[in-house]
Design a protein that fits this description.
about 140 residues, about 45% strand, OB fold (Dihydrolipoamide Acetyltransferase, E2P), disordered C terminus, mainly beta
Length: about 140
């Protein structure tokens, strides 16, 4: 048996986008930016931002669409969704001709880390956890 679990913490780059599958199941897509900063040996600052496309299903999708907005900080737990052809991130060509990659994940748990309208970290008492979705509930 194999198992993977991915946990990311980041900020929403845009408002959540919710839609419904033909059978009426809610699905919400989040665009989450994770940031890493460091100091190089020469004292200069380094920074890296990685974007994740996070898909949330069921009641969690509805909660995310209702309560989250651009700039909010979230913690997402779930699994990576690789490109079926390559097994890696989804690679695409932008309108300007440059290439990009999309790291995609299906979230089973989404925790809202910042208060409504605010950004930044939170204490344990600030966590709001959306209803988690069992993998068997995902319609694909």
């Amino acid at each position: 048996m194999s198992y993977q679990k991915l946990i990311i913490v980041g900020n929403l780059g845009r408002d959540p986008e919710m839609r419904y599958t033909p059978d009426g199941t809610p699905v919400t897509t989040l665009s989450v930016a994770t940031n890493r900063q460091w100091t190089n040996r020469d004292g200069s600052q380094g920074e890296e931002t990685v974007w994740f496309r996070v898909t949330v299903w069921g009641k969690s999708a509805e909660s995310c669409a209702q309560y989250l907005s651009k700039g909010r900080q979230v913690l997402c737990e779930g699994r990576m969704k690789p490109d079926p052809e390559t097994g890696g991130p989804r690679v695409y060509q932008r309108k300007d001709g440059t290439w990009g990659a999309s790291y995609e994940m299906t979230a089973f748990v989404v925790r809202f880390l910042s208060r409504q309208g605010g950004q930044g970290g939170a204490s344990d008492s600030d966590y709001e956890e959306s209803n988690s979705v069992a993998e068997d509930d995902i319609p694909f």
